Amino acid sequence: MLENKVSISRQTAVENQFQISRRAFLTTSVLAGGAVVLAAIPMVSIVVLPSLKKGTGKWVDFGKADKLPPDDFSMLSYEFMTKDGWIDLPQRGFVWAKTDAKNGVKVFSSTCSHLACNVIWNRDTRMFECPCHTGRFDPDGLPVAGPPKKPLFLLPHKVEEGKILVHITL
Ligand code: FES
Description:
By secondary structure, the protein is of the alpha+beta class. The protein has two domains: 1-52; 57-169, Rieske Iron-sulfur Protein. Helices cover 30% and strands 36% of the residues. It contains one helix and ten strands. The chain has one helix spanning 2-52, and strands at residues 57-64, 74-84, 87-100, 104-109, 120-122, 127-129, 136-137, 143-145, 157-160, 163-169. The strands form three sheets. The chain has a four-stranded antiparallel β-sheet with strand order 5-6-7-8, with no helix packed on it. Strands 1-10-9 form a three-stranded antiparallel β-sheet, with no helix packed on it. The protein has a three-stranded antiparallel β-sheet with strand order 2-3-4. The longest helix is centred in the N-terminal third of the chain and has 51 residues, at 2-52. The relative contact order is 0.14. Bound molecules: FE2/S2 (inorganic) cluster.
């Protein structure tokens, strides 16, 4: 009988110990979870939010539209700084623009639709040429030779007070 009481008492002590350690575990887990959430807030604002802003862009002023020679593409270069989290990054590139009396201003991205090399306008052949895989595009940006299957991307633009503004996607 006494042996049974001792055994039951030991069992109760072990159960209590288990409950206490389970309670301590749950408390620690909740506190740790709260700490992780608090630590994640600045990380989300620094790392995640800027990446969600990708896909936005910037209107870049390329100056007077009448400086473009008629019926021929001109390379217009740009460079500006963007903020990625706490880092300032330079954005550099160029677009191809032309103006004519019939269609007004037309602006193409310089990025080849195949694998994103930069295309160059060849005045002699009157083609956009991609040096990477010999892709060719006609003056309307349509693919005519090589691997590209999609046209060059026409960039949104507007002319305000005689200046060409092009929307560059980041
Ligand atoms: S990247 Fe231009 S043809 Fe391949």
